[in-house]
Amino acid sequence: MTRKLYALSGTDKTRPFSPHVWKTKLSLAHKGLPFDVTPVAFTEIPKLEEGATKIVPLLRDGDKLVSDSFDIALYLEKTYPDRPTLFAGEGGRAMARFVEGWSQMTLHPAIGRIAIMDIHDRLEPVDQAYFRSSREQRFGRPLEAVAESGRADLETFSAKLEPLRHMLKFQPFLGGDGPLFADYIVFGALQWARIVSTHRLLAAGDVVSDWFERCLDLHGGLGRSVTAA
Questions:
Q1: Measured at the alpha carbon of residue 160, what is the angle toward residues 143 and 10, in degrees to the nearest 5?
Q2: Tens digits of per-residue pLDDT, 155-167?
Q3: Looking at the record's lineage, which domain of life comes first (predicted)?
Q4: So what CATH class is 90-118+149-225?
Q5: According to CATH, what is the number of the domain 3-79?
């Protein structure tokens, strides 16, 4: 059985950039489950699988469709319990929920402002129009103004990583000696920035940079299969 993962891409279909898709790609690899990636554009998402979702990732596993990266991870854990665990029990699930909240409330908004024009410029014209309209409605100002505010985020981004930096002083991964889904959550955010933007958010010699390099090497270097912008 071939699993199909629908992944958000721009004009270059070989460079899926969604942070949530990257969580799922590493989750599937963690479980040792083969899958094929089907790239989709923003405006194509509502047409997927007869309107099955408004978001990606969307995973087709046989006759099962699952969307949302956390729900997909829960599904994989329940459906393939004999494969390596993504959570290592209830505590790991609770930790992942906390990490997801921190990542999406702290890292994602900053990366979104820093990279907003980079994302726009990598899209087809029809998707650029959608992206501009939807993001300007979300932010309440033009994309260019959002990008300008992203300059301040560049200066403060390293400080936002301090909780992760502290934890990595004691262990190589958030999951301990090896990665769990919590690692993939934060990796997905930083991989998003790495793929779409030429701004470098991590400094050499930082424990977070070392952790990110370890994550890029996981599962046969899956994270390195797409080069940095």
A1: 40
A2: 999 999 999 999 9
A3: Bacteria
A4: mainly alpha
A5: 3.40.30.10
